[in-house]
Amino acid sequence: MFRLAAFDMDGTLLMPDHRVGAETLDALKQLEARRVAVTFATGRHYLEVANITRRLGLQGYLITGNGTRVHNRAGEQIFSSDLPPDVAHEVLHMHWDTLAQPHVFRDDGWLTGSAAPREQALHAENDFHCQLVNLRTLPAYGISKVCFCGEHEELQVLQADLLAHFGSQVDLCFSAYDSLEVLPVGTNKGTGLRHLCEHLEIDPADCMAFGDAMNDREMLGMVGKGYIMGNALPQLKQSLPHLDVIGRCDQQAVADRLHHWLRSPNLTFPPN
């Protein structure tokens, strides 16, 4: 029997309208009742995800900012990772030939340099709002990640520019088709989950995980059973061809897979 279940949120647990469906919520609460360590692993900020889980009546473990922060169910931080100050300074002060807009994550919130109505609309219902600031005036320490949002083709060019400039000083990852993240080296949802497993004394082989984007790759690849969403980025399916591909988030495919297991408690993992 698995002891921990980790879920990406956007494109996986959440439906396209960014709500948790009734069947999914029911499955999560049944997992909690069976003392499974329900874990939300997301690129979203801790402050926002804490609001979401509180509103849903759930008390999960949180891996947020794509693995840069890990919190226990009481809201206590058990792991953190930041960009080196010199790297953060260069990311925010260099002139990048791009229309993509940078967004900064710090413990005190989400900051950006100009209005971002589309991004703000995605998070407003969770009472989480960006702070408009001059990003070049921010202190370089305490920045967990920088996310560039824009057209995918634009981000692909930026990815090459960032890689040419920083080399192995940062990790770059597409958390969505329109989001390119600059992360501390060696920090991702997989390393976040590994820190959590060590904290809980759980073998990763006794975990399962669900995801849809490249920022889920390390997490899906390290657990006993990883599932890729039917709506996942093609790059994720290609990078982990041995994993099962299930239904889409708009079908609440995670709930369907979990309910199979919940009805068959002798199964180690949900059936294919």
UniProtKB/TrEMBL annotation:
InterPro entries: Cof (IPR000150), HAD-like_sf (IPR036412), HAD-SF_hydro_IIB (IPR006379), HAD_sf (IPR023214). GO terms for molecular function: magnesium ion binding; phosphatase activity. It comes from the Bacteria. Its cofactor is Mg(2+). Keywords: Hydrolase, Magnesium, Metal-binding. Belongs to the HAD-like hydrolase superfamily. Cof family. This is HMP-PP phosphatase.
